[in-house]
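Q: I'm teaching a short session on how sequence maps to structure, and I want students to see two examples side by side rather than one. Could you give me a first protein with its sequence written out and its structure tokens following it? Keep the formatting plain so it prints cleanly on a handout.
A: Of course. Example one:
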Amino acid sequence: MSARILVVDDQAANVRLLEARLQAEYFDVCTASNGEEAIKVAKAEQPDLILLDVMMPVMDGYETCSRLKDDPTTRHIPVVMVTALDQREDRIRGLEAGADDFLTKPIDDVTMFARVRSLLRLKAVLDELRYRESSSAMSGLAGDIHDDVDSASRVVIVSTDPRATTRYAAAMPGQAQVREVHEPGAAIAAARDAADLLIVDLTANDYDGLRLCARVRSDAATRQLPILAIVRPDDVQHAVRALDLGVNDIIHRPVDAGELAARARTQLRRKRYADRLRSHLDEGMELAVTDPLTGLHNRRYISSRLRQAMDSASNGGAPVSLLLADIDHFKAINDSHGHEAGDQVLRDFSSRLLTGLRALDLAARYGGEEFVVVMPGAGMAEAEIAAERLRSSVAGSGFALKDGTKVPVTVSIGVAQAQRGEALDSLLRRADQALYVAKDGGRNQVQAADNAAA
């Protein structure tokens, strides 16, 4: 995985050393010698990750990191603090400033590249979600990665040592709902139960914690679940293997409660942000294919699905028929009762339309007071029966308005069955011609199209 990495250090020798190591692994490297310059370069170059020295004059790494995370243009860039300091207070201070991870000098190459690759994978996922969200109909509604999370989070802690899980549970944020799992076999089921964070003790000898992490990552239901692994400080191989398997973060034993809480909050914020992005992306996709007034599919979506059904029918698949329905004298309803009443009629008509359809039928508002129903697997006779059922249900009783007034409504419907090799425009044109015949013949009726494709 290649990426652009910004190296920030006031010591030129340290910069050259890190630059050489990274370039040897085919990373693109840009550099800065102080905090102010780092902020400017980060804004201009938009690196994929920042390796930030803590001990710098004028503006130290903590303040630099805090400013980067406060700026909307750079806050999504992962920051790894590089420091000779290894006290709990230093790590907690860095996490609270927004740092994503730490590397302690002298830097071990294997550990560094494992952490870098892990953070780059995560950033690639979030970048893709952010890009899709920015292009969707719900753009700008997903909040921010550093928004506070007030709602309760579900944390699953896995260890065969009950005393350890109790200590770890006590360190979780106050709003968290913690589930302690002492039987590794039950961990997958617990993780699937709407968990927001999984903490796995990899130091136990009586079960394979790495295999558990791998199973979580391979399961579609838990693939996006953040994993925080607990490892021994001298077991570099285990830590690197965990990061390569997709573990999001690691913490060394003996576990400091304050650091564990800070790392857990970071993972929970990130998970909640990704969930919001996915949720708003889904909503945006729904808006793109849905008519906002009636809740039916829109013209763009139904055209695409109709074309697919017609292609299948032309290649020996099941037949497909089309209903084109138009509410009679709809303009008179708007003129007499107002547009709000007209909107109510459109919504109620849509409800009656859906009531009479099969599960596999697709209905859409095609424009104004015109509606389309695609009936996969239905021939002309079945489509005519469905059309007559709709016509009868609409004409059988009036449509109630908010003021209690009942408005009589009827509908005219044209029906057409797709012919082998027929183009979409031809099918729609034949259905429209049948609808015109129904309108011209007095409305409130169903007319079948000529079977010959135009």
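Q: Perfect. Now a second example for contrast.
A: Example two:
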Amino acid sequence: MYNSDYNRIPEDREPIETEQFHVYEAEPPKQKKRKGAARFVALGLCCALIGGLAGGGGVLAYNHFAGGSTTIYQGSAPSVAVNLAQVDGHTVLTPEEIYAANLGAVVGVNGSVTTNVFGYTVKNAVSGSGFVISSNATTSYILTNYHVINDVSDITVFFADGTSYDATLVGGEQENDIAVLRIEVGNLQTVTLGDSDALNVGEEVYAIGNPLGELTFTFTGGYVSAKDRSVTMSDGTVMNMLQTDTAINNGNSGGPLFNEYGQVIGIVSAKLSGSSSSEATVEGLGFAIPINDVRDMITSIIEHGYVTGKPNVGVLLDDVSQEAQRYGVPAGAEVMAVLDGSGADKGGLQAGDIITAVNGTEVSSVSALQEAVKEYKAGDKVTFSVYRDGDTTTVDVTLDEENQEREEAMNQLQQDYYEEQQAQQQQQQQQGGYFQWPFGW
């Protein structure tokens, strides 16, 4: 836990001003050797260990016993200015140029969160990071991680120059951990997107973010350690990630990961920070969402408020239990309820059906079924292999679109199913003492 002035919201803080310090090399003039110099040097070192007056004591002792004087030599050299380079996709930039060229487009993200213990609403320090991805004359859009703004209200973004703005959530996609915010100010600096597929392992990459929510607008660098890593998130979602040894910490989430041309090729999302089976410290294992994986989704959220084209079947599902499988029931995704008017309803899926394959690809669980259907879009027709009443048949289903209306309908179906099960079972709970909610999908 860090407690500091940074726990105040950004608009209440005073900007911190720093001055540049330069260390110059200079060759001091040669001094004449003094007899017994080693003895006096040793004495000076002893004085340096004494305590509060250590440094001064060493100098005074030398002056007193040697009868000499001390001189501090200062050289001079021209200061080096960092050019504000243009990100053109062809010119390799220095780390200094990458930071200078993109700092104005990076933001900190914070907001109000209701605690789980006492129910109080508190104002966070920086929850995470983000960056301006689009800006017109009146409005700007900021990309961040979904988990940064999930369950957060009164969202505020702030820039390195000290300005801050209230932000509105345009839409998000939890499965891919992206969200888009809108602020009512235009003509802001934006980042330039690169091609994450063109990255090679070993290429240098850089991040700008707000580690720990306090060390705002920190710049770190490293290498692409691996591509196409399948990373299981805390909620069980499996995501495709870029792996990097760039220093990443809490508060960096949602910030940009740049290539050597100063283009954004990833969204910093996660860090492997420990092991549940040991006390070993894990460092240098950071992950970012490849920008190519979510580019179209970002555009869709900006234009429509959600990711268009995502498929939805219109059923509640649960895994076939191990007990049922011991009696000859195949592994798969069991249909618990069907939404009226959905593609599943029109195609003929029924409660009690067990889906075992999608277009010939076997599936043994709900997650496997979801992964198989992800390969299709809303409007596509897929063939489900179904185990029903001891026989196997096929059902053709035209996939619906996942949107806000469908989400609300599925939530209501799940609630109705829960209440029906409660009434039928008369307080008898399922599966080890608790009621297991089926997956709505």
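Q: What should students look for in example two?
A: Point them to this: Confidence is low (pLDDT under 50) at residues 1-66. Also worth mentioning: The longest strand covers residues 218-232.
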